[in-house]
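Journal club side-thread
Mid-discussion, someone asked how the predicted structure for our own chain would compare to the paper's figures. Pasting it here so we can look after the session.
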Amino acid sequence: MPQDVKTDVPKVLDKTTPGLQMWRVENMELVPCPPKTYGQFFEGDSYVILYTHKTSNNYTYDLHYWLGKAASQDEQGAAAIYTTQMDEHLGGVAVQHRETQGHESATFQGYFKQGIIYKKGGVASGMKQVETNTYNIRRLLHVKGNKHVVAGEVEMSWNSFNQGDVFLLDLGSLIIQWNGPKSNRMERLRGMNLAKDIRDRERGGRAQVTVVEGDDEKSSEEAMKLMIQALGEKKHIRDAIPDNIVDEKLKTDCYLLDQGGIKIFIWKGKKASKTERAESLKKAEAYIKAKGYPASTYVETVSEGAESSVFKQLFQKWTDKGQTAGLGSTHSPGKIAKVEQVKFDATSMHARPDLAAQQKMVDDGSGEAEVWRIEDNELVPVERKWLGHFYGGDCYLILYKYEVNRKLYYILYMWQVSVSSLTASAYQAVILDQKYNGEPVQVRVPMGKEPMHLMAIFKGKMVIYEEGSSREGSSHSQPSVRLFHVHGTNEFNTRATEVPPRSSSLNSNDVFVLSTDKSCYLWYGKGCSGDEREMAKTLADIISKREKHVIAEGQEPADFWVNLGGKSQYASSKRYSKTGTFITPRLFECSNQTGRFIATEITNFNQDDLDEDDVMLLDIWDQVHLWIGKGANDKEKHEAVVTAQEYLKSHPAGRDLDTPILVVKQGFEPPTFTGWFHAWDPQKWSVS
């Protein structure tokens, strides 16, 4: 690997401007690429690409070095060295990626929304980066990809064509798009976007773009004449070529993680030596050779404390410092962080959809709600006195209506104890959904996973019983001793959940209600707040009509422990903030057409990436949104929830299968969904 790189990295690097920066290695020097050439790569060159993300209080970085298939070994080595030097200058927190031509990662492809163009030649053959307004061009581009477009220069001949793809014949002042008869709508749209991008960036907007439909060439006589002049007499066009389906899915030292030969991750601990950190990419390349993996194998380097979401999600349990595990135990002996209680402002939810998305609240729950219990596969309205009471022996549907700008919106919650109870609730949900013309957002809510907005509907008076039923004539006998764990600080986030009546269920951070045939106790843990105590008083009155005995932790009477079967050890460590970890939202296109579930990730996504003919999956970790386009087929619509469950099952991190699933229809997206998309346009789709 060459050591005589010539560029002083700090002089060319801007580490505070969000967005993309790109350099080409020219004679061992790092030369900035003009923004108008971003997405264009010479096959004989190597490049370094930096993407800077601005978060609320700092910056994160993705560093890529891209190797053309004809790049020299010296330039490839120089690109790797410059990448390592940039990482050091950025404080060692950048995620490093090794990219090779034709095998780019989804993250890399996502930077270039109009597509990637491979150009013949390189700096060694005198090819310049900037050739704006140059019209003496003759090239044929083969366009591939629905979500991530790649266009490579191919031989100027009809032999290069096939019936399943899109081709661009670039003649300088005229760009002809030829659509294969078997190409799909999205491929044609992406091809047109790329053609217009070439026109605007390379020709200053002065070239013409025209389209030839491969199955109706007679309608484009003039364009066909020009194609024949450039390519010769037309020959038989080959059949469509099927796409190869590729499944792309510690201590303080340096580690290498091999994801089955598909991806290689290098994890650099904070105590790793400078030599270990500098040579990590070299070690990865040596490992690839030793294992006999293809030279195009993807490599990503992450540093301790700055791991990417993709890396974290390969682990069944990834815990950051200060992160709470469940409701009790905590990770790491660091400083205790006080959890800041932020006042909920309902008026901001629709003006600030990004805030609505973060808090998962469309409003303050003051809309109209109807609640049904499912009995013998039929909907039975829940009596007013039982509203807010959810029994483990029942399934419930809650239809919530709210108004924005004089338009009604609907959310349909399906509360259930287990997957086995899904059939009846799903059947009735379909009927209700049809009654409201398919407009409701459907939310599957497993017991114990109630979202904040559902709690807000019941104004802090939600009680969840482990078993039993509220239906008339129920034969289920009420236990003589019941223990409820109260969690929440206001009417938007509070619920009482029944837990086993034993002392090991207690937690010093919270409030509990112990209800017996003779008395009712309010137990205040040492770590609970005043707001939590106030909310618990309200819930205790709902749970029991008996006089309440308030008990502070450590001052329990003997009778209290007798009702819990005796005193034993329970969770007593102070709870850390849960807000330290932010999982980056991820958008996927879902498909099971090949007989197995495939989720193709779309990085740096925006509203344009939502394909009207598809089902898209937005994963925000503690919830999964399924977006159903207008053109999705009936099977995809009916199997939407199954698709989401399949995604959770196949996730490498061993996801919780009870993660709430929300079904969202095109044109009826709530702010809790649109807030994850930058500059969402509510008028983009007109829905009658």
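Post-session note: The two ends are 62 Å apart (CA to CA).
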